[in-house]
Amino acid sequence: MNAPAPRRLVALLALSGALSAALPVWSAPPVPGAVSTEAGRLAVRHEKFMLPNGFEVILVEDHRLPLVAFNLWVHAGPRNEAPGQTGFAHLFEHLMFAGSRHVPRGEFDKFVDAAGGTDANGSTNFDRTNYFFTLPSNQLALGLWLKADMLGWMIDEVDSVALANQQDVVRNERRQSTENQPYGIVEEAMYQALYPAGHPYRAVVIGSHADIQGIQLKDVKAFARTYYRPNNATLVLAGDFDPKQAKALVTKYFGTLKAGPKPPEVKVAMPVITKERRLVVTDRIELSRLNLAWHTPPMFAAGDAELDVAAHVLGGGKASRLYGLLVRDRQLAQSVQVSQQSQSLSSVFDIEIVARPGASLDEIEALVDAEVAKLATTPPTEAELAQARAVIETQLLQHMEKVGMLADLVNHYNQMAGDPDFVGRDLARYRQTTPVAVSATVAQWLKRDSRVVVQAKPGEQVLAAEVATPPMPTKAAKGERESLNAPEPWRNKPPGAAKAGTLSLPAAQSFQLANGLTVIHSQKAGLPLVSASLVVRAGQGANPADKPGLAGFTAAMLPEGTTTRSAQQIAEAAAALGATLTTQAGGEEARVEFSGLKAVAGQGLALLADVALNPAFAAPEIERLQAQRLAALAQAREQAPLLANAIGNRVTYGEGHPLGANALGTEASIKATDAAALRAFWQGHYRPERAALVVAGDLGEAELRALVEPLFGRWKPVGDAAPAAPLPPAGPIAARTVLVDKPGAPQTALAVVAPGPFAAAPDAADIGVMNAALGGLFTSRINNQLREVKGYTYGMFSGYTMGRERGQFGIRGSVRTDVTGAALADMWKEIEGMRAKPMTAAELSRVRNAQLLSLPGQFDTNVAVVGGYAGNWAVGRPLSAITDLPAKYGAVTAASALRAARQHLDPAQLIVVAVGDKAKVQPQLEAIGRKVEVRDAEGKPAP
């Protein structure tokens, strides 16, 4: 249940785009899917019908996987809120999960877990609220039963207790996402400057504390009567189902819901700014930021597509103009982001630049103005337009790969364009635009006197007056509940599952090149997409003791120039393919990854091979990355959760341990890194016998061999291999509490950590099921107690990181400052309870099924398959580890899960790291009997 940041809030990151003329049109996939081409036109086969009560249903039959996505859109968002009720639509989204007449409070998500659901959540943007999950296809009836009860009988269960609880949860979400998040209040200030009082877009989606707390039960009921009716909602089913059966079940479950009145129309004129508005916002940030924002045409209106293209040209990645100018050449900026945030009433074109330390925002603004003015007078090149189209097309197809995202796309087009299959016409907008049109549109809309300029600078964070959190009511008063629809007793019993097919997961095969490189291949027919990851045993654990951060620095340098290409040429090559090319270093391995269309797989793998095998380590690029990584160190101090994790690693592994240091390194180690150190690390660790190339997608083995042999077969090790020394063991651990002061923080970020088992642990499945019950699921004991019962947090979750030679347990999340001590006390009770006795049969069945039956939904994209097999190779698991998962999860018992808890969940080893307001938090910690060590942001004892 979330409220996304007010960027372009549509299902697909809003980057629906054109079939690039530079790329071949692909043919319909051999697997029976919903996506097809008709005379070169991308289309989604669907059937749309309406029940007598006005409920819209769209069926998208797609048999690629045994999954069905359920995607319900209610056509109400902040655009429909009354004055003084900002955040109402989003609060209502949360209430929809609080129970209904036939689904008891707290049971909705448990049904989804027990059925093996994935991607279960809801979200609110300015124009709509959606509710979604994906279930195994034999649970079609259950999914419809749940969705119908949410829409038709949720209001029956909303009372003062449920409302108060979700008000607390949403206010915690605001603290976490807006007030305790760098630049959160800056985004809010920008929208308030763009839109006048009374405009529904003026407030960010989440609303204000005063408005959220001021919402009353009568307001909730009125909103439900007006907007949460079948004639104001649309359900998309996408996936593996029989349409005839689906129609009958939809009619059964939704047909008796009573239609409501026609919701009032929202007619708001687009605001007009005739004189530049400037403001400075101070926030608890390390790096200053510049935002330039304009009102632009609504979604799908004339000019919207041209401004999408302009956003790509100016700031759509490393090949863009502003990235090249501000990040690469002038080195004034840490990051560049440009977007056309399309919405129904009006859109916002936003240029966002995070400055390097010491850089002048005024200088950055002048350079940005010059680039915008240049684009307004000189059309982009055909190559820039082709790059934008290629990126847009690939991103669109990648989002259609997942049935849940496909369902959301169809619902998006249905509401915003009036046509579920608008994708073809949407693509045509980009195909038809020209460089001249892009330039003219920029000149028309991006004028200096019609914009808002926001400078965010480090300083005091100024928030609205504190709004007290009332005590949670213990019970509802009489007469608080009412109904929109008559009770139907037959709905009290959830429908049973149909017969399930054999649970199978994507298998992989492997072969080895003569130089020792392992190639792992999983063929996935369907959309013409391919993903690949070159995994190398060159992670943080391989860092020399005196060079923390070297593994990450080496990985970051790979795409910054090879012996034949400059960093700019690499970025342009990836953009021309519409592909993503990324590098990263984790704890034990580094990865170079590519994703793109099958048609460019050969070129994409060639680019991947070039950056991995032929890095230049040029001095100018090293100097640039040094400055960038030093700035990233400063940025990490801004974010309390990241800081809690970093300190948690330091105290878990101990001083001097490679995994205890910040993955970025230290200021001294970053400054000391030179070409010799980088090349020596690369030569010692980036070697074919210590690497695996993992590929998934629409490629057969013969096709893959033909691509891989010429590119990687000639890879020869350079120099001597680095000794394969095992990681040192973690230092001795004793339970303690570490506090990092963050004065004025509205929340305390917690990381409760301890050493954990390695990947080779024979009871890994038992650990996974046990952790799901403790804190791994939304319905877990810890999250339920701290969020749903107490309202202390927006979310608190636990997990095990199990590597080849490392292991860690952690519970992470943020809580309201004034309940830090109480939240930890409750957390400890749940941990002790997990170790005290076996789970009940009902709980075990639910959490085990949540792991077992959800497996197909966890491997439903090429990226997910590659990630799974690459991760298994990195930690030393066999190739069969993924396909063996069903049997392993199926064998977990209450007794084996209890043994796992007692063996791998030791309160005597748990270290609490709390990042928050010391003056308010320390007394709470001491009151619950915890001795507190105060440390600074580097993890060192504070004076």
Automatic annotation (TrEMBL):
- Record keywords: Signal included? yes
EC numbers, comma separated:
3.4.24.-
Q: Where is the signal peptide?
A: 1-27
User: Coiled-coil intervals in this record?
Assistant: none
Protein known as: Zinc protease
* Family statement drawn from the similarity comment of this UniProt entry: Belongs to the peptidase M16 family.
**MF GO annotations:** peptidase activity
One annotated GO biological process: proteolysis
Question: What positions does the domain Peptidase M16 C-terminal occupy?
Answer: 215-390, 675-850
> Which keywords does this chain's UniProt record carry?
Hydrolase, Protease, Signal
Q: Can you give the residue ranges of the Peptidase M16 N-terminal domain?
A: 57-195, 522-631
Q: Which Pfam families match?
A: Peptidase_M16, Peptidase_M16_C
Q: Name the residues that span the membrane.
A: none
In which organism is this protein found? Pelomonas aquatica
- Return the annotated region ranges for Disordered: 472-500
Q: Does the keyword Iron apply?
A: no
